[in-house]
Each structure stands twice: as C-alpha cells, then as structure tokens.
Sequence to fold (599 residues):
Amino acid sequence: MSALEEPSALAKAVKAVVLTACCAVVVVPFLGIVATSLASREDVTNAGGFVLIPRSINFDAYQAILSGGVVTRAVLVSLFVTVAGTLLSLTATTLLAYGLSRRGTVLHRPFLLVVLMPLLFTPGIIPSYLIVKSLGLLDSYWSLILPVLVNVFNVIVLRAFFMELPGEIIDSARVDGAGDGLILWRIVLPMSKAVLAVIALFYAVAYWNSFFSALLYLNDTAKWPLQLVLRTYVVNQSQLGVDQLGSGAELPPAEAVQMAILVLSIVPVLLVYPFVQRHFTKGVLIGAVKG
Amino acid sequence: MTARTGPSRRQRFSRDRFLVLAALPGITLLIVFHYVPLLGNVIAFKDYQPYLGILESPWVGLANFEGIFTGDPVFLNALTNTLVITLLQVIVVFPVPIALALLLDSLVSERLKRVVQSVLYLPHFLSWVIVVAIFQQMLGDSGLLNGFLREHDLATVNVIGSPELFKALITSQVLWKDAGWATILFLAALSRIDTTLYEASAVDGAGRWRQLWHVTLPGLRGIIVLLLILRLGDALTVGFEQIILQQAAVGAEASEVLDTYVYNNGILAGSWGVSAAVGLVKGLIGVTLVLGANKLAHRFGEQGVYQR
Fold:
C-alpha cells in the first residue's frame, strides 16, 4: 500500500462536505444581509424580519442612508480616518523599519529595544485614556489615529523583509554614491511593494474597523465613525428616524436600513481584499515564522 | 573611553543620520503612547482625582489593590469569567485551525484550495461590531434560525440574550471570525515539511494516519508551542470589544471580564485608581506567563518566542 495513492472516495466526500459547510457558514450570512438590505417592506413582513431571498429588489434603504444624515456623515468620517491614518501609519512604519534594518548603525540597539518592549507589556486602558486626555485629543479625530499610528508587529514584519533584501544591490548603490534616503526610495521601496500592500491593508482595516477608541475618546456623537453608528442603530437596534436620515420621503423598513448600513461597512473591505490577499502568505509569514 | 578602531561616535551619527531621523517619528510615538502610559500606571498607587492630575493626586499605597487580594466578589466574578473563557478558547478554538489546515493541505487541487482560503480568511477582516450584528441576524429573536424554527412550529431559542449561552455564543463568534485566518501559519509550517519524510515513511510502510502522527504533527510542533505561549500571555485578555458590545443583553454576571471591569469601573464609574490597579496586575501576570511558558518551552527543546 503506497501512502501516496489517491485518497479514497469516502475521504474525498467527507472533505467536500466539511469544506462546503465551512464556506457556507461564512457566505450565507452575507447573502442574507445583502438580500435584506434590498428587500421591500412586504418581503420583510413575510419573512418575519430577516430575508434570505428577496422577491423584489429596491435600493430605497441605500438611498435613505446615503442622501445626507447620520450614516452619510459617519461614512465620510470613517473614510477620512482610514485614508489619513493609513498613509501616516505606512510612512512612519516604513521609515522606522528602514531605520532599524541595518545592524551596527548608531542607536540601533536602543531603538530596537524601544520597538520590541511593547510586545511584552501593554499599558492598559486607564493610563492610555489619561494620556490622550491630557494631550487634549479627546473629541478629535487625532485620538483615533495617533495612539495606534505605529503598530509594532508591522514594524517587525517590514524590518525583517528589508533585512532580507539582497545586500549586494544596496552596497553597489552606495558605492555609486547614493545616500540612505535615495536607496530607500529608489531600491528598497520598489522591491517591497507586495509586503507594503499587505501592511497597508492591515492598517486600513484596523482604522476602518476601529470601534473602541472612538467609543473611548469621542463623546461628540456628531463625530462618530461608521462602527459606532453600526453599534447604535444595528446592534442596539435604535430606530433611525426621518431626522437622522437624509431623505424626507417614506421610510424603508428598519431591517432593510440596518442591513444596508451593515453592507456599507463591509463593502470597502471586500473591494480591497482580492487585490491584497494573494500577498497574504508572503506578508504575514516573514514576521511570524522566521521571527 | 576604550580604544576603539573605526569611526568615532560623531562620525557614526553623521554617517547614519538618515536612518536615525527616519526612525525618530515612530520612536517618538511609541514613547508618547506606550511608555508614558506605562508610567501612568502609578495612579494604581494613588487616589486619582481628575482635577488634581496624576502628579498632584495623593498617594494611597496599596489601598487600590485591596479589593483584588481580599477577594472582592465583583472582581472575582470578572476573573472567573475571564479564565473560563480563556480555557474554552484553548480547548475549543485552538485545535480547529490545525484541523482545518490539515484538511486544506490534503486537498489535491491548488485552485480549490485557494478559493476556500479566500472565503475562510475574510471574516478576520470584519470588525467585531459587524460580526456581532451578523450573529444577531442569524441567531437573534427575529433572526434566520428562529424564523426557521417558527415556520416549522418548533420552540424558538434566544441565543443572543441568554446568560447561560453567552460563553458558547462568544466562543462560536471567535471561531467564525478567526479560525480560517489562523490556518495561515499552520499551512505555511505544513508546506515546509520535507516531502522526502513522507516518502521515506511510506516506504517503511506507514499509512496515512501514522504519517500524520509521526511526520506531520512533529513538523507542526514548533508553531503550536509558539502560538500556545502567545495565547498564554493573553490569558487574561479575552475579546474586549466583542464582550462590551453584547454585555447589555446578558448582564455583568455572565459577561464581565477583567478588561470590561476596568472600563466599566474606571472610565464609566470613575474609580480610576482601582481600575488601573486591576489593569496593572493583569499586565504583570501576562508578562510572567509568557516568560514562564517560554522558559518551559526552552526546557523541552523548543525555540519559543525568543531565543536564549
């Protein structure tokens, strides 16, 4: 009996069933959410709330939440924080990782220690809150960005990647008279596009999804990002009234509105995901397995 | 100074000035938002008064820690819940990605493998708010499950609002969100196992299950130990956002964990000192656990998180 033979038909069938079930558990809820967001009042009533297969399709819920009002504003806030935060994070992370990527430079060891220590000890909710407060960042969008601008884990991943780039190219550039800045810009960055894409996605997702820092630092509900609006109007089921929605027309069913907000919060992730995911393994593993 | 060949300190500064300047913004941010708050933990030893500030507030010694060590029931409840949830996650959640990775790895078709991976990784990128909302739609009162049960005249279950089911609920949420994503590391470790080992064991007459036991699992051992150590370091950190979102529905008795205790008592109720003390003890225990587990791993000949 060779163990390298084709698996038995039974084994194949079991695998197929298990994997299909796993995928269905992920996919079916999405379909249901999209279906409910597109459903009419009649559909919602018939289904008793959640619709899996809508009989008719209308975009009233989307129109209601996207024509000004609470949800529209929250989407804009989240987009702004995500874009600004990701750009700043990517810049600071790249510079820090590059600054630490060459052994034997001055301050290399103390800087490395500063970066590694946070992995061991997190400061805790209360002191973090107090620092943000004493810097006067409460109720400012900076409070969502600055405290999490540099993610230590991402720095380590990127530094490991930089250190594995072929040294000969960098050395020859230096012989040709290029400074460290030029080397970073012209040689290191172009060679690191894939891993930078993954790290940008990690940051972007973290900013887009950030919920607790907004809950902690933003008392002004007018400044709320999408995740807090989601919590209030979808998880806690507060009703969105006409005054919170943009349109003055007849309200679409509450369930459709809720699911439309949910879809809106998932779509940006779905849009970026396919472009980045083929790099995942490369990006994640450098830091994790090789350490 | 000792006699030293090579460039002087000043020369090295000027040689490396770009690298130092590049690192500075990041280093500054880490100091301000990580190291300064670490110092801020002194309020655990103070009667913190917001209008006095950290420095002016009076020292109270270990008074804030009293509740922790004298067994304040509210604190004990939070601690018990935390430990139960951690235990559930190690026993129930930890093995699933390993099994899933083995299953994916055994697929013959590369294409199919990639499709399944893309689907299973996705929930990792959704926020807890979204995950909780999705579970409400599936398992809530007017959700899919109860809709189905009602249609067939069966008794409905309120999974979302019952305290007895809370721990099972959050465990299944963690599974749904991250089990797929966690396979990524195991899959990489599997792809690194030398295929000649399989061939050799097959020649020696080992069947599939023996190969799994003698080749595959030893190949995964390093990464399993590493992840268990890291999990141990987070033993007292369990799903903060996830729990705070669902706490209202089930009450504190079933759902209060150390992190929510710190938030509810400190930020919301204003007992800053006591909450900071709990946070500090929690952090110290976490570090101790990681270092201890790592030492243990070294003793068993594993690499652990860092090398000796």
Notes: The mean pLDDT of chain B is 89.
